[in-house]
Specification:
The protein has strands spanning 17-23, 33-34, 36-37, 42-43, 52-61, 67-76. The chain is mostly beta strands. The strands form 2 sheets. It has a 4-stranded antiparallel β-sheet, with no helix packed on it. A two-stranded antiparallel sheet has the order 3-4. A hairpin with a 4-residue loop joins strand 3 and strand 4. The radius of gyration is 13 Å and the shape is elongated.
Length: 77
């Protein structure tokens, strides 16, 4: 789940396109998955089925046309 907000107003950004590429602990990277709107946030169903560090490369193309990129990770023990 991802929530994007306007830096000036703090209101959720609900227009545009957001996708995530997921890097698994074994180093493989899945094809991008598009996130869908869900009451003020965006999400996609996925399974983190192996222990290790999972990487999330998120790209958001918002209404103004600029692409914003983010990287995050999550550790499964």
């Amino acid at each position: 789940m991802v929530m994007l907000s306007d830096a000036d107003t703090g209101k959720p950004v609900e227009s545009g396109m957001v996708a995530v590429k997921i890097g698994s602990p074994d180093g493989t990277e899945a094809a991008p998955k598009r996130l869908v709107g869900m009451q003020g946030h965006l999400g996609v169903t996925l399974a983190l089925d192996s222990p290790g560090i999972w990487h999330f490369l998120i790209a958001a193309k918002l209404a103004v046309g600029k692409v914003h990129k983010y990287h995050g990770h999550h550790v499964i023990e």
